[in-house]
């Protein structure tokens, strides 16, 4: 019996020789066309620029406009096109596409499959990964270890989220609507011959009991015990801001320390700390705890808000394009988010 024809599919057989090292060879990002400033929010709900800036450090964020054709997968595809251009690769060079998102347009297909089609990645496997704001960091760790295992050589990791689709832009939703923005960021991860390049230490954590601190209810059973079902909240992010703040401040610092310890490094050895942009006060507390100078902990939350899975790769791309992240440096990526999840990825670039 003849085997069915498989059109130029990538080989998934383990290669005989595992790569020496792994490197990030290109980055890209994409923001929607339309900003949503604090002044815009003042017109939609009872809030003020002063309150938002004081509590979060956010002055503006971006919101997709579906009438312009913007969505999670279109932002993701554009970020990936830019990352491929930076890496000097064609989409057909990719073996795998991982899209970290909690806002796919549909339950099926995965956004990663739409992205593969959009960019023309005809040889690549593709899947979505949902670890909320930690998704890109989890994806980076996954891609690195898949390449180290020898079965894949070129993987695109994309973080893309449009939380605006899960917001209530009325006063009832002001506790979350002021925080989140839409964006996508991408990184190309490739095998290389330099054994010194790749991840020095990594972690991926979850506290499933903490699910009730950030969730998106769709029906009655989705509300945590003790919380009354309220259909007006269906489809909108519900967040216990104070609990998340407390979790984040403690976890962020512990996560950075744990990762430094695993690599046998001190904070002073880091060239850059790329943190998930959740809240300016959370970022400042991490910076102060480790005595890092301002230029070693990147901040863009004032311009883009909390962009969830896109947050870390957007920072990475802005830093690469500004020449502030370069080969040879030691860079730590850290994130935390719904789940609750948190994770780190410390690279020798
Ligand atoms: N504008 C004006 N007032 C607002 C408001 C807004 N956008 N949102 C809430 N308030 C009001 C509340 O109704 C409350 O009023 P009350 O005291 O009369 O009830 C008051 O401000 C304080 O609310 P609270 O929720 O306690 O504020 P806070 O100091 O905890 O700040 C967050 C709220 C969300 C900014 C803060 O908790 C936070 O940043 N948490 C972490 C969130 C996070 O990082 N999430 C991302 C996870 S990846």
Name of the CATH superfamily of the largest domain: Thiolase/Chalcone synthase
Bound molecules: coenzyme A
In terms of quaternary structure, the protein is single chain
Number of strands: 13
Structure report:
α4 (111-119) links the parallel β4 and β5. The protein folds into two domains: 21-192, Peroxisomal Thiolase, Chain A, domain 1, CATH 3.40.47.10; 198-348, Peroxisomal Thiolase, Chain A, domain 1 (3-Layer(aba) Sandwich), CATH 3.40.47.10. Residues 1-7 have low confidence and may be disordered. The protein has ten helices and 13 strands. It has a five-stranded mixed β-sheet with strand order 1-7-6-4-5, with helices on both faces. Strands 8-13-12-11 form a four-stranded mixed β-sheet, sandwiched between helices. A two-stranded antiparallel ribbon has the order 2-3. It is 31% helix and 23% strand. The termini are far apart. The longest helix is centred in the last third of the chain and has 23 residues, at 241-263. By secondary structure, the chain is of the alpha/beta class. α3 crosses α4 (111-119) and α7 (241-263) runs parallel beside α8. The protein is globular. The structure holds coenzyme A. Coenzyme A binds at residues 47, 51-52, 55-56, 133, 174-175, 178-179, 239, 241-242, 244-245, 248, 278-279, 306, 337.
